[in-house]
Amino acid sequence: MTQQQYFQDYMPDKVCFGCGTENPDGLHIRSFWQGDEAVCFWQPQAAYQGWPGITCGGIIATLIDCHCMATAMATAVRNEHRPLGSAPHYRFATGSLYIRYLQPTPMDSPLELRARVTDIKNERKYLLTCELFGGGEKTAEAEVVAFLVYRSDRPELSPLSFQRENNRF
Questions:
Q1: Which residues form a coiled coil (predicted)?
Q2: Which of 13, 38, 144, 159 could form a disulfide with 68 if both were Cys (CB 3.0 to 4.6 A apart)?
């Protein structure tokens, strides 16, 4: 039996509010491969309510955003037939996030996110879809654009502001 590999364990810094494993106030989402889909299960807590018993839409957006950025990174590594955590290391940033909230998302059971990369353009622009399920029902769906903003083997390709702020790689 193989141990589950969570994408976030292989991301640098680990301080992101949504997916940072070292952010004490964060959501600590954990994404993994299930076939060709990236899957995440996450249990909302009372602090993340929008209305009583309903998950806040902003928290849903954060879950989708972070799950998709991790999925883009894991896809890039997988497409190169490398294990997670191997060099070069990649960082992705959100280009756009379009969410359709289909119905209220309940908080009484774990939420399930399922994402996949649908297209890659110019090796830097990843298009993704993501679905969110709560209580067994699809409650939201999203289209996301993720941009590859940093490669540890080609830092000169990063935007100048990103290079200045992240010159430790």
A1: none
A2: 144
Give the pLDDT of residue 156: 78
68 within domain boundaries: yes
With vertex at residue 114, the alpha carbon angle to CA 11 and CA 79, rounded to the nearest 5 degrees, is 55
158 occurs within a structural domain? yes
What is the biggest distance separating any 2 CA atoms in the chain, rounded to whole angstroms?
A: 48
What CA–CA distance (Å, rounded) separates 101 from 86? 36
18 in Cβ contact with 29 (< 8 Å): yes
pLDDT at 13: 82
The structure tokens listed for 34 are 């299930």
Is the Cβ–Cβ distance between 29 and 7 less than 8 Å? no
**Three-state SS for 31?**
strand
Assigned domain for 2 exists: no
Residue 48 C-beta-side C-alpha neighbours within 13 Å: 22
Distance CA(144)–CA(46), nearest Å, equals 27
CA atoms within 13 A on the CB side of 6: 14
Looking up residue 44, the CATH number of its domain turns out to be 3.10.129.10
3-class SS of residue 36: coil
Q: Would you say residue 1 lies in a domain?
A: no
**Domain encompassing residue 43:** 7-165
Ranges of the chain whose pLDDT falls below 70: 1-2, 160-169
